[in-house]
Amino acid sequence: MPHRWTWLLAAIVATVGGAGVLGYAERDLLAAVARAGRDVANADRPWPGIRVAGEAAPAGRAFGAWLDERARAVEARTITVAVEGVPGAELTATAADLGVHVDRDRVAAIAAAIGREGTIFDRVPRFLASRRGAFDVPWSVEVDAARVRDQLAALKEQVEVQPTPARLDLAHHTTVPHADGASLDLDAAVDAVQGAALAGVGRLVLVRVAVAPRTSDESLARLDVHEVLASFETRFSRAGDQANRARNIERAAARLDGVVLMPGELFSFNAAVGPRTVDNGFAQGWEIFKGELVPGIGGGTCQAASTFHAAAYLAGLGVEERMPHSRPSAYIPMGLDATVVYPSVDLKIRNPWAFPVVVHTEVEASLLRVELLGREKPARVTFNRDVVGVRPFTRKVDEQPGLKAGRVVRKQHGIRGYTVRRTRTIALADGTERTEESLDVYPPTTEIYLVPPGTDAASALPPLPADVAAARAAAAAGAAVASVTPQDEARACSEGGCEGDKPVIVEGPGVHRPVAEQASAPTRLVISR
């Protein structure tokens, strides 16, 4: 044997203490190193004894196939993600579904590099150490953060608690304390999922983090609210079937009272008032659905939203999201109303001023008043509403089996459709002025009658007016039939009046005659604050 190899082997023996070469002839050791070097060079398999995540590839098994099989097993492990302190809030999914991916190529490259790097003096001792299992390559795991967030979004929504900002109790000159909310930190969840995948953990418990409200008790301590920026009032009824609707108005108004809009803050009506459910304090009331009045939980909430919108609009606040009703409202002029449906249709208002704005609501008898308060009145606002288009309504007649002869039920009054141009002029204290213009479109509301089967609608019902003038002419000629209450109908029938030539028309549940704003809106309306 050449002298240099003898010297090399002596160095190896000295390095490893002789234990690694016991039982090997010098030439056999060198041949083993050479074979292992060729295997590594061909990327077929790493040196014998090298482990991946604690396990070595079986003898005679292709390393790449074995590595891929183990990686798939890691990705197929199920992980249950739970939330501390929230029983039942958990999600079970595979590591792959949670965005975990094992980088096979990187693991193989690290394993192969152990036999490639350094001089022969470095490689031979490592070869001997490798046979003893001294090298263990960890998994290289990548996590798709977007996938984790998508998978955990529903869990996050389930365990979230919205913070409650501090409010002003203006009636008692006190502050209603704030309360922190709670949420999942999805960025931290990404790291936790990666750690669970690497450790082979089957259950992962996430901790919620506290979420501070936008306004705290301390921030309201020196709030100046002596100036009324703008106010608006609407009226409602408490009589009969309107009692629940009145209750809903009071409930929504109470949720708005004392709310503080910080400078630049975007306010959501739906977030402040919450879901319109019985559990949230709302009752069944009349609301508009697909063009008709129907009973629904929370009916009347729109009146609170509309009154608040009108005050905010006249205070010069920014209206970021708002939708008008599908018909003119009886309680507020067209152009100032706002419809809301939880959670899809919202009213969002932004405070553009350099000081906080406080919402103050009052309900007295049948009057709802909304005031916006602040340290100063920064602008004078003028609202111009012009009717630029009118569309006639149509009539729908449905035969109602079981409806007795001589009785007709008016299920819904017809209301003309309007297109109105809204113009808001904001005159600032520094003398500058800006104007905003937009269009609101209110489709016609179909007039609906329920009649007994076989009724000749043409003779039994009032003529349908083509426009306002025609309607007034028909009324003056006596062609229209006067509506009566169910009590009037009962009295008329007892006197034989139900069998006459003209049926008695009874208003259906929740139906009320259109007010002037609905029946014949003025062409121009101007409001200044």
Features of the shown structure:
single chain; 529 residues; alpha+beta; 5-stranded mixed beta sheet; 4-stranded antiparallel beta sheet
Can you put this structure into words, describing what you see?
α1 (3-16) crosses α5 and α8 (243-256) packs across α10. β20 (357-364) and β21 form a beta hairpin. This protein is α+β, with helices and mostly antiparallel strands and 529 residues long. Mean pLDDT is 84; it is low at 1-7, 9-25 and 478-500. The chain has 14 helices and 30 strands.
Helical fraction equals 25-40%
Strand arrangement across the biggest beta sheet: 23-27-24-29-28
Global geometry: elongated
Low-pLDDT sequence parts: 1-7, 9-25, 478-500
Number of strands: 30
Give the rounded overall mean pLDDT: 84
The profile of the biggest β sheet is: 5 strands, mixed
Q: State the assembly state of the protein chains.
A: single chain
User: How large a portion of the residues is in β-strands, by DSSP E?
Assistant: 25-35%
Q: Can you count the helices?
A: 14
* Distance between the ends: 107 Å
**Gyration radius, rounded:** 39 Å
Helix vs. strand class: alpha+beta
Please provide a brief summary of the model.
It contains 14 helices and 30 strands.
Task: Please render the helix and strand layout as text.
Layout: H1 3-16, H2 26-41, E1 51-52, E2 55-56, H3 63-76, E3 78-83, E4 90-94, E5 100-102, H4 104-113, H5 120-131, E6 136-137, E7 141-143, H6 145-159, E8 167-169, E9 174-176, E10 181-183, H7 186-199, E11 203-206, E12 209-211, E13 227-235, H8 243-256, E14 260-261, E15 266-268, H9 269-273, E16 284-289, E17 292-297, H10 301-314, E18 318-321, E19 348-350, E20 357-364, E21 367-374, E22 379-391, E23 395-399, E24 407-412, E25 417-428, E26 433-442, E27 447-451, H11 457-460, H12 468-476, E28 483-484, H13 486-494, E29 504-507, H14 516-519, E30 524-528
Parallel strand pairs: 1-6, 3-11, 23-27, 24-29, 28-29
Antiparallel strand pairs: 1-2, 3-4, 5-7, 8-9, 10-12, 13-21, 14-20, 15-19, 16-17, 18-19, 20-21, 22-25, 22-30, 24-27, 25-26
